[in-house]
Structure formats: C-alpha cells, structure tokens
Amino acid sequence: MKSIKVFAPASIANMGCGFDVMGMSMDATGDTLKIEIEDGVGLEINNQSGIELPDNIESNVITPAIMAFLAAYGEPKKVKVDILSKIRPGSGIGSSAASSVAAVFGLNELLGRPFSEDQLVEFAMEGEKLISGGVAHADNVAPSLIGGVVLIRGYQPLDIVKLPMPSKFHCTVVHPNIMVSTKMAREVMPKEIPVRHAVRQWGNVGGLVAGLALGDVELVGRSMVDIVAEPYRQGFIPGFEILRNKVTKIGALAMNISGSGPSVFAISEDSKIAEKIGTVMKEHFAFLHIDSNVYVARVGGAGARVIE
Ligand code: HSE
To answer: Checking DSSP bridges between strand 78-85 and strand 42-47, what pairing results, if any?
Structure first.
C-alpha cells in the first residue's frame, strides 16, 4: 500500500471582473487529505475533518475528479481518501476545488506523475461540474493546483496562464457564516448580457491583467469592478455595499465577492491596512448577528503540495 498526505490551498475565483476566467490562491487555509492506493478496484472516502459533508460518495466532489483521473489512467486501482481538514462548503473560497485538487494531485504523486498540470485541472473540474449545476469552471481549481494568480484564457482547449503578481499585494477575506451554493449563485445571473456591459467588463479584465503584469496595484484595484455577476449576487450578502464603502474609506483598493460568495475579499497594498480591513469586516457581520472568519494573507503563494 502506498500513502501520501497533501494540502491544496483555498482560492478566490473571479477576482472581481474575471467571471470564470481569473482566480488566485490563498494560502491561509485549505484542505488536507491522506490518500492511499492498493491493488483492486474502488473508492472509499472517509471524512475526519469535523465539517459536515454529504454522506453518499456520489455527492462528494472528490468522486468525479478521481473517476476522471482513473478513466484516463486506464488501470484499475483501489483508492482510499481520508479528509483530514476541510474548508467549509459553500464558503466561496474554493472549498470544493481544494478537495478535488488535493485528491487528483495526491493520486498523481503516488502514481509517479503520469499527468500534466493541465490534465489534473481537467480532472478536478469534474468536481466543480457536480456542484455548479453542470458547468465545469477552472478559476478555483487552477490557482489551487498551481498557486498564484491565474488566467484561464480559454476552456476548449484549456489554456491556463500564470500571471505575475505585485509583491506588496495583500488580501483580506471574510467568510460570514451564511450559506450560498454555487448553483444558486449561478442561477440568479442572466443568461445573456448587453454588449455595453461586455465592453466595460472586458476593459476591466484587460486592466486587471495589465495591472498585474506592470505591477500597478492601483490599476489592479480600479479594474476589479464586476457588472456581470456581482449586481445579481450581492443580495445574498447583508450590507454588501455598506461594507464596501467602509473598507474603501480605510484603504482597500477594491472589494468584491469571492467566487460565488458569501465570502467577500478586499485587496490592499499594506499588511496593516489589510488587518484593519479584517477588523471592519468582522465588526460589520457581528453587528448583523452573523459570525464570521477573517483571513489576512499575502496574495498567491504555493499551490497544492505534499506535506508527508
Ligand atoms: N466562477 C465561479 C462562479 C466560481 O462565480 O460561479 C465559483 O466558486
């Protein structure tokens, strides 16, 4: 029997304007899995994380990700996965992505790395498909796997670009204790958008990528404006606009919904400002009688890795 322990970080999808095409890793939290393989066929998943997950194996995102991996591998294996620690599902910081990435990354390591990063992203996307109502997006799985800030330039074929990152780029994330499923957050969005909205949005995506490449943090900040998803989703987050005003007043360059929410993130240039933003975010939700967890981290960092 072969065994490995792996970690995959949380991630912030969309980064404001880049719906389904931009994402960044966030090392402050993530999923830790122990994976074992032996001869035979089958998959066993044990949840030891203390976080509530679906009981049936078919509803766990790890299942379709591992199945896609093994179908491509072409040789039957018995895989046992122990979930040791887990980001709470429905948080908006890439909980499902961290699980499916850790699973396929760990399996790939155990089997001597038969697959490339792009192939692992494709397998992990099968988990995203399960929880988002049939759409496989890569803006959480790609940054969780490779780390840093990532652009998904195209899906068919998959074209993943790792972007440079200004070094003094800090991120504050608040995860209020409310549940918003990705499926629900996608269903509230219109199926089509007017061209004038698309023009504003792709101007901002271009500005975001240029700002990252040029190391221009202010350009990054003013490009993080989303008119495609955020107007329809912000109703899930109590006092969203009020909170945005509060954090921009104390130095946040931008504040947006993280992925499909309910987590919210703000970027800033200074670790002290990032800490202060965290306090304001925590107080905002406490005032509304909503518990929350706050994470303050430098943006990016490493992707999935072996820890034992
Ligand atoms: N891009 C996806 C969405 C991320 O916004 O629905 C989900 O975490």
So the answer is: parallel
Could you state, in order of their start, the residue ranges of all structural domains in the chain?
2-163+301-306, 170-298
What does the pLDDT look like over 90-131, one tens digit per residue? 888 999 999 999 999 999 999 999 999 999 999 999 998 987
SS3 122: helix
Strand, coil or helix: what is 23?
strand
> Which is the closest atom of ligand 1 to the Cα of 132?
6
Place of tokens 């499926």: 183
Contact 169, 298 (CB under 8 A): yes
**What's the whole-model pTM score?**
0.94
> Measured between alpha carbons, how far is 259 from 92 in angstroms, rounded to an integer?
5
- Which pLDDT value is given to residue 1? 66
Q: How far is the CA of 306 from the centre of ligand 1 (A)?
A: 26
Atom of ligand 1 nearest to the CA of 19: 1
Across the chain, mean pLDDT equals 94
CATH fold of the domain at 170-298 = Alpha-Beta Plaits (3.30.70)
Minimum CA distance residue for ligand 1 atom 1? 20
- Pocket-forming residues, ligand 1, beta carbon under 6 Å: 13-14, 19-20, 137, 139-140, 182, 185-186, 229, 259-260
We find that the CATH architecture of domain 2-163+301-306 is 2-Layer Sandwich (3.30)
The distance of Cα 16 from the centroid of its chain, to the nearest Å, equals: 13
SS3 121: helix
Q: Residue with structure tokens 């066929």? A: 41
Point out the ligand 1 atom lying closest to the alpha carbon of residue 258. Answer: 8
